[in-house]
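Consider the tokenized backbone below.
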């Protein structure tokens, strides 16, 4: 039976969603991430609290998260581009392959179980936590980007995994670009240009693949739940503040905090699998 959400509990849930929206938008601007790393675990617990069946709960979480972060990454991209820090040539080179990867991710998610999608988060969420904890932006493989087809292959992988995790892809794109000689600020800015190529086609794909599926929460279009989209404007509002701070202060303490958060999320999903 679906859980009954009381007025007090509903108020708490709405406050948590509002906080997640603000934090996701701020992190989008500060670290170049789309906020999905924050929203996925929050929405997963919210949908569990209102009784969404486990077999569709993760799909709804991922589809809704991509819908929420889409305007946020667009806002971050516009803010960084206005400051002249986005490398449009990289966006044009990686963008088409990101899109192909997103398409592959949607096809995989359409046939994947909730268990498989949680395992994706456990594995790659742990990898992201380790990367954030190390916090090394000075590591270099080369000073120029890889020649075809290596960068294009990496873009395809980023699009696929990001769609399966419900994130904007910058958590993978930023370290890739810095490993090949791009300054951290330019890498963060450029990643925001690739985020919409993941979020917008991704949310459309989750709408289509979830259309007519049983057990979805009210106000759902496929696997995208419109009820949670109320937090999207808060993310858009907070994103420019993160961009402003990204240009003025070191991010090491926040990286460590976010690494800890990601590790806890990965552990939480692991506990649901064992």
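A designed sequence for it:
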């Amino acid at each position: 039976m679906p859980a009954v959400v009381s007025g007090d509990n509903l108020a708490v849930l709405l406050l948590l969603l509002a906080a997640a929206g603000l934090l996701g938008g701020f992190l989008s601007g500060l670290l170049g991430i789309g906020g999905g790393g924050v929203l996925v675990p929050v929405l997963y617990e919210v949908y569990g609290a209102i009784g969404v069946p486990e077999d569709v709960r993760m799909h709804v979480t991922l589809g809704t998260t991509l819908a929420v972060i889409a305007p946020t990454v667009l806002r971050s991209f516009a803010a960084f581009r206005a400051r002249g820090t986005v490398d449009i040539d990289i966006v044009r080179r990686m963008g088409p392959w990101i899109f192909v990867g997103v398409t592959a991710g949607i096809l995989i998610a359409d046939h994947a179980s909730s268990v498989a999608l949680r395992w994706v988060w456990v594995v790659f969420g742990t990898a992201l936590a380790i990367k954030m904890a190390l916090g090394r932006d000075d590591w270099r493989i080369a000073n120029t980007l890889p020649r075809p087809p290596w960068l294009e292959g990496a873009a395809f992988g980023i699009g696929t995994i990001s769609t399966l995790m419900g994130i904007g892809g910058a958590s993978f794109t930023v370290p890739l670009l810095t490993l090949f000689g791009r300054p951290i600020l330019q890498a963060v800015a450029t990643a925001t240009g690739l985020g919409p190529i993941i979020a917008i086609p991704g949310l459309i794909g989750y709408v289509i693949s979830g259309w007519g599926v049983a057990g979805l929460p009210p106000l759902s279009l496929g696997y995208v739940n419109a009820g949670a989209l109320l937090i999207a404007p808060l993310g858009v509002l907070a994103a420019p503040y993160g961009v402003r701070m990204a240009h003025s202060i070191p991010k090491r303490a926040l990286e460590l905090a976010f690494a800890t958060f990601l590790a806890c999320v990965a552990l939480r999903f692991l506990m649901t699998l064992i």
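The first strand starts at residue 220 and ends at 221.
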